[in-house]
């Protein structure tokens, strides 16, 4: 990676490295975090494309921002003592924008595939017919927090992802 300033952030990193006797990698991390706090991802994307390897603090900050940016994220991570200080500093959320590719919510596909596997297991290993298996797996799914997984939805998932 060139040490000559190409962008404002290159010059800032060079100044941080010289003024605080830091390595260029560490200085880049500090600049990335400063710009992220201000809501600007340009130094991050530029340096990643040029081969910069992020330090753990930047990785944690990005994870916090991604958690904040996703509506279904598990926010309990933000209370973890190892993450809390970073979470208090980085209050912005990052969200992937644009049209998703691949046809819908991947978590939903995984849940439905798991439902289909459970039905197949009930039929093969528990000697149930399909209707019994749909009912059995429906009860299992609802006991695991999937409230809308009635026998009809189990059947749909099974028919879509038959194993």
Share of β-strand residues: under 5%
Oligomer: single chain
Poorly predicted runs = none
Mean pLDDT: 87
The biggest beta sheet reads:
none
Number of domains: 2
Write the element-wise H/E pattern from the N-terminal end onward. HHHHHHHH
Explained architecture:
The protein is mostly helical. The protein folds into two domains: 8-89, no CATH class; 106-160. The protein is built from eight helices and no strands. It has helices at 8-20, 24-37, 42-49, 56-69, 81-89, 106-125, 130-143, 151-160. α1 packs across α2 (24-37) and α6 crosses α8. The longest helix is centred in the last third of the chain and has 20 residues, at 106-125. 21% of the residues are buried. The model has no long low-confidence stretch (mean pLDDT 87).
Task: Summarize the entry for a quick read.
The chain has two domains: 8-89, no CATH class; 106-160. It has eight helices and no strands.
SSE layout and pairing:
Blueprint: H1 8-20, H2 24-37, H3 42-49, H4 56-69, H5 81-89, H6 106-125, H7 130-143, H8 151-160
Helix pairs in contact: 1-2, 2-3, 6-7, 6-8, 7-8
